[in-house]
Amino acid sequence: MQNDQSHESQLISLLTQCQLSLGLYVRGLMPGDAAAHDVLQAANAKIWEKREDFVLGTNFKAWAFAIARFEVLNYRKQQARDARLVFSEDLENTIAAELERLDDDLLDRHQALRHCLRSLKPDSQRLLMQRYASPETLADYARRIGRSAAGLKVTLHRLRSTLAGCMEKRLRMAGDGS
Fold first, then answer.
1. Angle at alpha carbon of residue 17, lines to 60 and 163, rounded to 5°
2. Start and end of every RNA polymerase sigma-70 region domain (predicted)?
3. Which residues of 23-62 are buried (b: 16+ CB within 10 A; e: fewer)?
4. What single string gives the DSSP state of each residue in 112-165?
């Protein structure tokens, strides 16, 4: 009983950790399809239903992606009568493989960005976060914080360049380490 609870706890943790990736994967296989969210939920339900089949210590993300892919294929089969665009199985396989690779790249870039943002001074972090969270134009935002638009534009450009350089270095180091 305790072992079953531990297995389920670990599975919940793994599933929670890969939700962003799983969602991106499903949406990538179903670009522009409003049903992607429903298919993701069906994939989550199927993952939970098959939880006893997962062997701890193996690649959970690959296992979950395979289940999600089958859910997408099942959805497409159900919609085939009404579909205007149907991908061949070869194209599905190619897209799925590319999305898995892109997902890994995206997660690496996201981690690098988080690290590089944390390495900035708090004032710079705050400026970037507030600027990009604001719906205002650059000129309106600059006026609100008491800076010239030109000066703010230069500062933001420098911060973006610093972040880009930091991310490039971090990703290169990560690539050399693998």
1. 120
2. 25-81
3. bbbbbbbbeebeebeebbebbbebbeeeeeebeeeeebbe
4. HHHHHHHHS-HHHHHHHHHHHH--S-HHHHHHHHT--HHHHHHHHHHHHHHHHH
d(Cα 25, Cα 88) in Å, to the nearest integer? 18
Helix and strand totals (H; E) in the chain = 8, 0
Residue 151: give its domain's CATH number: 1.10.10.10
Amino acid sitting at position 117: L
pTM for the structure as a whole: 0.50
- 83 and 111 assigned to the same domain: no
* Number of structural domains found in the chain: 2
What is the CATH classification number for the domain harbouring 74? 1.10.1740.10
Domain coverage including residue 108? 104-177
3-state secondary structure of 81: coil
Joined together, the tokens standing for residue 177 give 């380490």
In tens, the pLDDT along 87-131 reads 677 887 888 878 777 777 788 888 899 999 999 999 999 888 888
pLDDT confidence of 149, banded at 50, 70, 90? very high
Answer with the one of 46, 78, 103 that is the final residue of a domain: 103
Domain boundary among 103, 119, 138: 103
Q: Do 27 and 88 have their domain in common?
A: yes
